[in-house]
Amino acid sequence: MTASTTNQVNERRPRERLRLLDSHPYLDDRGRFKAGNPGGTGCPVAARVARLRAALLGAVTPEDLKAVVVALVTRAKTGDLAAIHELLDRLLGKPIEADILERLQDLEDRLLKESTR
């Protein structure tokens, strides 16, 4: 593309943009949404998940949750590894790899060497 062709394309773009903005009922002259814009309908999956979560929260009482936690702790105390992992993951968070700090340091060292070349 030559310089003159680039200038012609760049000169056309603002006019095309203005034409698009003029024809759009919900955008102002700066391309922003106008007041009264109906917006998007949202994600139907998220709406369904929200309804299911609300139903679940409505069906489970604090006493139910306490009974589930007591059962999980009881199973963990008997040596059930799945229960132990679940309990620790919920209480302390998922474990990170033990060598993550060493690996990060190695990566930083390599990046530093590459940037100084």
Helices and strands in order:
Layout: H1 3-23, H2 44-59, H3 62-77, H4 81-92, H5 100-115
Quick take:
Helix content is 69%, strand content 0%. The chain is mainly α and 117 residues long. Helix 3 (62-77) packs across helix 4.
Please explain how this structure is put together.
- The protein has helices spanning 3-23, 44-59, 62-77, 81-92, 100-115.
- The chain is mainly alpha-helical.
- The chain has a domain at 61-115.
Which short descriptors sum up this protein?
single chain, flat, mainly alpha, 117 residues
Strand composition percent: under 5%
Q: Give me the Rg, rounded.
A: 29 Å
Number of discrete helical segments: 5
Give the SSE string.
HHHHH
Distance between the termini: 35 Å
Class derived from helix and strand content: mainly alpha
> What does the main sheet amount to?
none
Count of individual beta strands: 0
Overall geometry = flat
> In percent, how helical is the residue content?
55-70%
Q: What's the overall average pLDDT, rounded?
A: 81
- Low-pLDDT stretches: 5-10
